[in-house]
C-alpha cells in the first residue's frame, strides 16, 4: 500500500522526470467554447481557490448570483413575512415555475416545484394504480432515490419489480434499446429509467424507448436527477409521463430544490395529493414554501440560460471525452462509462482494479481533489461541469496515475 508520503514523493518524482508534463500535455486545447469561459465561470463560484471539485453529480456549487438571490429573498421576506410570501415574492416564485417549464420545454401547468428528485419520483409512485402481479421494469444501475418509490409499489400493491442489467459499458443505442425492449412483457405497467445514469453517465436513448413504451401503454417514469444543467432537456421530445429532477446538482441551484414534470393528462387522472389543487407553487395542497430557495432556483435557471445549455453540454462532453481518453491509459483503471460520445454526457466513471476506491478517494481529497466513490463497483465518478478546466483534469489524472 502506498503511504501518503510515498505517494507525494512518487508524484514529485514523476513531475521531475518530465512524466507529469507529458501527461498534462496530452489534453487537446481545442475546447468547443471560448477557452477562458471555464475559468470565468469558476470565479463565479464560492469554492476556495485550489479546490478541484469533480463531484457536481452529488451536489453542485452555486454561483454567487444564486447565493445572493437566496440571501436577498430572505431579507425581503423576513421584513414582512405574510405580505411578501403571498404578495410580491409569492408572484416571483410563480414566475420561477414558468422558468423551469421553459427550460425543459413544458407547459407551466405540467410542472410542480418539489424539494428534490426523490420526492418527485415518490409522489408519482404513490398514485400509480398497480395491481398485484403488475410488473415494473428498471435497471440494476439506478439510484436509491429512484428505487424507493418502486419498492413502495411492491410493498403496497404487490407489484413485481424486475431489474435488467445494462451492458457495462454500453456500446450503442441499439444495444440499450434492445435490452430494455426484450425485458418488457404483457404484464409490464411501469418503466423507470434514468435520463443520465448516476453511475456511468449514460445518456439514455429515451425518445426511442418512449415510443416502445407508448405503443404498449407502459407508464414511463424518468429519473432526471443528473440531466438538467448538464444536457438539454425537452420533456415533450423525451416522451415521459413523469420526469423528476433536482435543482442542487448540475443546475447549481440552492439545496433542497427540484421539480416534477407530469405530462398533461396525468394530473387529470389521479394526481399526487401535492398536486390536488393544481401546480402553482403555493396551493392548499403544497402548503407554505421556502421562497428564498425557490427564488434561487430561478436565478440558477437564468444563469444557465444566459450561458446557453448547448454551450455547457458541448463543453462538458468534450472535457469528459478528454478525461475518458486519458483515463483509459492509466494502469488499474477499467472504464464503466460508455466510450461512444453519442451515449455520453459530462460524467465519466471507472473501476479501480488494483486499489481500493475509498483509499484513492481519500488520497485525492488530501490534495483537494474531490471525486465521488461508487461503492457498488469499487469505482470512482468524475463530474465535468463548465467550471472544471482542462488543468483540473490534468491534476486529477496526474495524481491518479501516481497512485496506480
Ligand atoms: C439518478 C439519481 N436519482 C436520484 C438521486 C437523488 O437525488 P436527490 O437527493 O436530489 O433526491 C440522485 C442523486 O445523486 C441520482 O443521481
What does this structure look like?
The chain is an alpha/beta fold. The protein has two domains: 4-47 and 309-403, Aspartate Aminotransferase, domain 1 (Alpha-Beta Complex), CATH 3.90.1150.10; 66-305, 3-Layer(aba) Sandwich (Aspartate Aminotransferase, domain 2), CATH 3.40.640.10. It contains 16 helices and 13 strands. It has helices at 4-16, 19-24, 37-43, 64-79, 81-85, 88-103, 117-125, 144-157, 173-183, 206-215, 235-238, 266-269, 291-307, 309-327, 357-366, 390-403; strands at residues 52-53, 111-114, 135-139, 160-164, 188-194, 219-223, 242-246, 258-262, 333-335, 347-352, 369-370, 372-374, 379-383. The strands form three sheets. The protein has a seven-stranded mixed sheet with strand order 2-8-7-6-5-3-4, sandwiched between helices. Helix 4 packs antiparallel against helix 13 (291-307), helix 6 crosses helix 13 (291-307) and helix 7 (117-125) runs parallel beside helix 8. The longest helix is centred in the last third of the chain and has 19 residues, at 309-327. The radius of gyration is 22 Å and the shape is globular. Bound molecules: pyridoxal-5'-phosphate (PLP). The site of pyridoxal-5'-phosphate has 13 residues, from helix 7 and helix 8.
Amino acid at each position: 500500500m502506498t503511504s501518503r508520503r510515498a505517494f507525494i514523493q512518487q508524484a514529485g518524482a514523476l513531475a521531475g522526470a518530465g512524466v507529469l508534463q507529458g501527461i498534462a500535455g496530452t489534453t487537446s486545447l481545442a475546447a468547443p467554447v471560448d477557452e477562458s469561459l471555464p475559468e470565468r465561470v469558476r470565479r463565479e463560484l464560492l469554492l476556495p481557490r485550489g479546490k478541484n471539485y469533480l463531484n457536481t453529480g452529488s451536489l453542485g456549487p452555486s454561483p454567487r448570483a444564486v447565493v445572493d438571490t437566496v440571501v436577498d429573498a430572505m431579507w425581503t421576506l423576513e421584513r414582512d413575512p405574510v405580505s411578501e410570501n403571498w404578495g410580491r415574492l409569492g408572484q416571483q416564485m410563480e414566475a420561477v415555475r414558468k422558468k423551469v417549464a421553459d427550460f425543459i420545454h413544458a407547459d407551466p401547468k405540467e410542472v410542480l416545484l418539489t424539494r428534490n428528485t426523490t420526492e418527485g419520483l415518490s409522489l408519482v409512485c404513490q398514485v400509480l394504480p398497480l395491481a398485484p402481479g403488475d410488473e415494473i421494469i428498471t435497471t440494476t444501475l439506478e439510484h436509491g432515490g429512484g428505487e424507493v418509490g418502486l419498492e413502495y409499489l411492491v410493498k403496497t400493491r404487490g407489484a413485481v419489480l424486475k431489474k435488467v442489467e445494462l451492458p457495462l459499458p454500453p456500446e450503442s443505442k441499439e444495444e440499450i434499446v434492445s435490452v430494455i425492449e426484450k425485458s418488457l412483457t404483457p404484464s409490464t405497467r411501469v418503466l423507470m429509467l434514468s435520463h443520465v445514469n448516476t453511475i456511468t453517465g449514460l445518456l439514455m436513448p429515451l425518445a426511442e424507448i418512449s415510443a416502445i413504451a407508448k405503443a404498449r401503454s407502459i407508464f414511463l417514469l424518468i429519473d432526471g436527477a443528473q440531466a438538467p444543467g448538464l444536457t438539454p432537456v425537452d420533456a415533450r421530445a423525451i416522451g415521459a409521463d413523469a420526469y423528476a429532477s433536482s435543482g442542487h446538482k448540475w443546475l447549481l441551484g440552492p439545496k433542497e430544490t427540484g421539480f416534477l414534470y407530469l405530462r398533461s393528462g396525468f394530473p387529470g387522472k389521479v394526481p399526487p395529493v401535492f398536486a390536488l389543487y393544481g401546480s402553482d407553487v403555493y396551493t392548499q395542497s403544497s402548503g407554505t414554501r421556502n421562497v428564498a430557495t425557490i427564488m434561487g432556483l430561478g436565478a440558477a435557471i437564468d444563469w444557465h440560460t444566459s450561458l446557453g445549455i448547448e454551450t455547457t453540454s458541448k463543453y462538458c462532453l468534450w472535457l469528459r471525452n478528454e478525461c475518458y481518453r486519458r483515463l483509459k491509459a492509466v494502469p488499474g483503471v477499467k472504464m464503466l462509462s460508455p466510450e461512444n460520445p453519442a451515449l455520453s454526457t459530462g460524467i465519466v466513471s471507472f473501476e479501480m482494479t488494483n486499489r481500493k476506491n475509498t483509499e484513492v478517494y481519500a488520497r485525492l481529497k488530501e490534495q483537494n481533489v474531490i471525486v465521488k466513490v461508487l461503492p457498488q463497483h469499487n469505482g470512482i465518478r468524475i463530474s465535468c461541469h463548465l467550471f472544471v478546466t482542462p488543468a483540473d483534469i490534468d491534476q486529477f489524472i496526474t495524481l491518479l496515475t501516481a497512485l496506480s
